[in-house]
């Protein structure tokens, strides 16, 4: 889960200023956590306590209201008891990585992904995107190989995961849909040699950089591990109360540790 948070932070400065190169500095001075991190930690905290996804998402958004949420999601978060609003956006997929750590079985992970998405993003494409991300992270945590995971996601969710990052990059543009974000982010993780490479891949597409990177990072963390210096800088850029949520989650569900330099 830390990989998703780190990549959100690094990608935050490129969402409004997209680039098409992998030659970029990590941790720009202005880089900070966005709505992707807030919602990911809301889901994580909910899993630790066994609470209600909608309640936790609303609580976290209200505590951190200026982190770049979509307008419809923000309105949902500030309206008690508001129903899901049919969104097919990538917000369902960017927050879902913690579920792969908390679920005991694959079927449980798929069901939890559906439940976590559908409180706000109940469009079939949004639920599908969340379940695809969980599938990748859960299978990686279970020790499955990257080619096996890639085939399973493509076959189960009918995503075309065959293009390379280099093939996607020239024509890719900003896209907030699940179907226009999740396959591309997953490819960024699979077409990498290490964690940092996956991060650079995602940002270099020139799209919704923090969310692409967040989704890629959740998978890349398990595939490659996170270098310790990157892990520590990412944690440093979180507020203390958010670091505490991360620590509580890791204490209960953590299966991966950052690799050393």
The main pleated sheet reads as: none
Q: Give the number of domains.
A: 1
CATH architecture identity: Orthogonal Bundle
Unreliable spans: none
CATH superfamily: ADP-ribosylation/Crystallin J1
Helix amount: 55-70%
At the first level of CATH, the class is Mainly Alpha
Name the overall outline.
globular
Radius of gyration: 16 Å
Distance between the termini: 19 Å
Query: What class, by secondary structure content?
Result: mainly alpha
Count the beta strands.
Answer: 0
Arithmetic mean of pLDDT: 96
SSE series: HHHHHHHHHHHHHHH
The share of residues in extended strands comes to under 5%
Please, could you describe this protein's structure?
52% of the residues are buried. The protein has helices spanning 2-11, 35-49, 53-63, 71-77, 91-94, 97-102, 106-118, 124-141, 146-157, 165-168, 182-190, 195-204, 209-224, 228-236, 240-253. With 261 residues, it is mainly α. It contains 15 helices and no strands. Helix 8 (124-141) runs parallel beside helix 13.
């Amino acid at each position: 889960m830390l990989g998703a948070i780190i990549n959100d932070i690094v990608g935050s400065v490129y969402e409004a200023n997209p680039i098409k190169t992998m030659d970029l500095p990590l941790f720009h001075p202005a880089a900070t956590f966005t709505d992707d991190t807030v919602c990911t930690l809301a889901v994580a905290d909910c899993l630790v306590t066994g609470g209600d996804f909608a309640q936790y998402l609303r609580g976290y958004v209200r505590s951190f209201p200026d982190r770049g949420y979509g307008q419809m999601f923000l309105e949902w978060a500030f309206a008690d008891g508001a129903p899901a609003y049919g969104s097919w956006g990538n917000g369902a997929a960017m927050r879902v990585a913690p579920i792969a750590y908390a679920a005991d079985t694959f079927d449980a992970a798929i069901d939890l992904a559906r439940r976590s998405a559908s409180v706000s993003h109940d469009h079939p494409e949004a639920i599908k995107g969340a379940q695809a991300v969980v599938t990748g992270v859960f299978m990686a945590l279970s020790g499955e190989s990257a080619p096996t995971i890639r085939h399973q996601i493509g076959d189960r969710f009918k995503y075309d995961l065959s293009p390379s990052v280099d093939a996607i990059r020239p024509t890719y543009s900003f896209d907030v849909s699940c179907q226009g974000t999740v396959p591309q982010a997953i490819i960024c993780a699979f077409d990498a040699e290490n964690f940092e490479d996956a991060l650079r891949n995602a940002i270099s597409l020139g799209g919704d950089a923090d969310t692409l990177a967040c989704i890629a990072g959740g998978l890349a963390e398990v595939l490659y591990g996170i270098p310790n210096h990157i892990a520590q800088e990412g944690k440093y850029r979180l507020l203390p109360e958010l670091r505490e949520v991360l620590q509580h989650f890791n204490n209960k569900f953590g299966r991966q540790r950052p690799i050393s330099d």
